[in-house]
Write a structure and sequence with these properties.
It is a single chain. The chain is of the alpha+beta class and 266 residues long. The protein folds into two domains: 150 residues, no CATH class; 108 residues, no CATH class. The chain is built from seven helices and 13 strands. A five-stranded antiparallel sheet has the order 1-3-4-6-2. It has a four-stranded mixed sheet with strand order 5-13-7-11. The protein has a four-stranded antiparallel sheet with strand order 8-12-10-9. Helix 3 runs antiparallel to helix 4 and helix 6 crosses helix 7. The protein is globular, with a radius of gyration of 19 Å.
C-alpha cells in the first residue's frame, strides 16, 4: 500500500489496515549509505531493491515534492516477504511504522528532531524489531504504549437500521474496490472503518458502536467528495457524509486512548 497522495491511494487508505506479521528473528544489518534510486515511491522500483537492507537516516529528499510510505511484498524462497520504505517522512510516521501505531497516536519527547527521515526495510524476519533497533542505534530513541486521556473521535450509530451495511457472508473475501464513483467494501468490520477514519482525519477514533459483525457495503464517492477527502479542512465533512450513508457518525469526545510514547534510549 502506498501513501503517496494520488487519488486511488487516498481511497484505498480509507479502509486499509496494515499489519506486520513476522516470526523469525535474524541478525540486524544496517546500511547507512544506499543508492538514492532505492527510495523511489513506486511499487515496481521497490520490488527491485536488494534483500537484507535496514536503513534509517535523515532525509535526502527534503526539497522533493514526492514523500510518503510504500508497502509491498516480494516472493522469496516460495514465501511472500514484506518490505517497506519511507521517503521524507516525519519522525512520528517513522516511529508509527516501527511500532505498529498510527501517526496521530505518536507522542514525541521534548527536543525530538523536527527534521524528516528516510527509512527502508527489505530484510526478512521480524521487520518491526529490525526497524526499532535501527531507530535506537541511529536516533537513540525507543517507544512503548500507554493509555492516556486525549481528544478522540467517537464512532457511534446514528441510524439503528444501518442502511447500506449488509451482514457479510462468512465465505466472502475481504477487500475494498473503487470504481471511480463508488467505494465497495467486502467482509469488513466497523473497527476497520474506524481505523480508516483515523488514518484520514489524523485523530484517534474510538469505536463505540458495539457492532461485531462483518459487513458488505457501497458508498458514493462523487468527484466533489473525492476532492474534499484530500483537503484537511474539508475531509471531516466528507467522512461524516460517507459514514452517515451507513448509519454511523463520529463525534468529538475526550477518552482514554492507546498512544505510543517515544523517549530517549539512554
Amino acid at each position: 500500500m502506498a501513501w503517496t497522495g494520488s487519488n486511488s491511494k487516498v481511497f484505498a487508505a480509507l479502509l486499509a489496515v496494515v499489519i506486520f506479521v513476522t516470526t523469525v528473528a535474524v541478525k540486524l544489518t544496517i546500511f547507512p549509505a544506499v543508492k538514492e534510486t532505492y527510495f523511489v515511491l513506486n511499487q515496481r522500483s521497490l520490488q527491485t531493491v536488494p534483500f537484507g537492507l535496514v536503513v534509517v537516516r535523515p532525509t535526502h529528499f527534503s526539497k522533493s515534492a514526492r514523500s510518503g510510505i510504500l508497502w509491498d511484498t516480494v516472493p522469496r524462497s516460495g514465501k511472500s516477504t514484506p518490505r517497506v520504505l519511507g521517503r521524507n517522512v516525519s519522525l512520528q510516521a517513522l516511529m508509527g511504522v516501527a511500532y505498529g501505531q498510527y501517526t496521530d497516536r505518536v507522542v514525541l519527547p521534548p527536543g525530538a528532531p523536527k527534521t524528516n527521515f528516510d527509512f527502508l526495510v527489505t530484510a526478512a524476519g521480524d521487520q518491526p524489531k529490525k526497524l526499532q533497533a535501527a531507530v535506537r542505534q541511529r536516533l537513540g530513541l525507543v517507544a512503548s504504549t500507554e493509555m492516556r486521556s486525549t481528544k478522540v473521535l467517537a464512532l457511534r450509530i446514528s441510524d439503528p437500521d444501518l442502511p447500506r451495511l449488509k451482514v457479510s457472508d462468512a465465505r466472502s473475501d475481504q477487500g475494498v474496490k473503487f470504481d471511480g464513483q463508488q467505494l465497495h467494501g467486502t467482509h469488513l468490520r466497523v473497527q476497520d472503518l474506524a481505523a480508516s477514519v483515523e488514518q484520514t482525519l489524523n485523530l484517534p477514533v474510538v469505536d463505540e458502536t458495539e457492532l461485531t459483525n462483518y459487513y458488505d457495503f457501497t458508498v458514493n464517492l462523487t468527484l466533489q467528495t473525492q476532492q474534499q477527502l484530500q483537503n484537511e479542512a474539508t475531509a471531516p465533512t466528507a467522512i461524516r457524509q460517507i459514514l452517515g450513508d451507513l448509519g454511523l457518525t463520529v463525534e468529538s469526545d475526550q477518552d482514554q486512548a492507546e498512544v505510543l510514547v517515544v523517549k530517549s534510549a539512554s
